[in-house]
Design a protein that fits this description.
Elements (H helix, E strand, L loop, with lengths): L14 E7 L3 E8 L4 E9 L3 H15 L3 E6 L11 H15 L2 E6 L3 H11 L11 H20 L1
Parallel strand pairs: 1-4, 4-5
Antiparallel strand pairs: 1-2, 2-3
Helix pairs in contact: 3-4
């Protein structure tokens, strides 16, 4: 058949929440599977793990995600970071508590990319601290979208 267009399967759709895990702060971003665009959402600064999970429960109730993505810290040589095991436990808690699929994504250089994005937007120094974690979560989600697109 000459000139026949090859149809690709439809892309999955649904909201995705992504997390930049930190011991004190948790950056959150949101995106849509069908279009592969991510946006910073907020930074959670909670006093306890319980408060953190309650805040996440509110976000899940509000956004109804079909998938959660968590950045996995690694050193530049690929070795696991001191926070890697805590991050894995966090991802497992999310999966068990909210019955949602959780994907771990290598987050190397996302904090640097976040700082560069903010600087390019005119946000510098201390002004970045409020937004850095959520912009890092956005970069984690963009990494997930890029990896998914490359494997398709």
């Amino acid at each position: 058949m000459i000139g026949a267009a090859r149809l690709s399967p439809p892309r999955p759709s649904g909201t995705v929440l992504a997390f930049d895990f930190g011991a004190r702060r948790l950056g959150v971003a949101v995106g849509e599977l069908a279009i592969g665009i991510a946006h910073p959402l907020q930074t959670l600064q909670t006093a306890s793990e319980r408060a953190r999970l309650e805040a996440i429960a509110k976000l899940i109730g509000e956004w109804s995600p079909s998938l959660l993505v968590v950045g996995l810290p690694r050193h530049m040589n690929g070795d696991e970071h001191d926070l890697s095991e805590r991050c894995r436990r966090f991802a497992l808690k999310l999966e068990r508590r909210f019955a949602l699929e959780v994907r771990l994504i290598d987050e190397r250089l996302t904090s640097r990319a976040a700082a560069a994005s903010l600087a390019a937007s005119g946000v510098h120094g201390r002004d970045q601290s409020e937004m850095l974690d959520q912009v890092a979560a956005m970069h984690i989600l963009e990494t997930y979208f890029s990896a998914r697109d490359e494997s398709a």
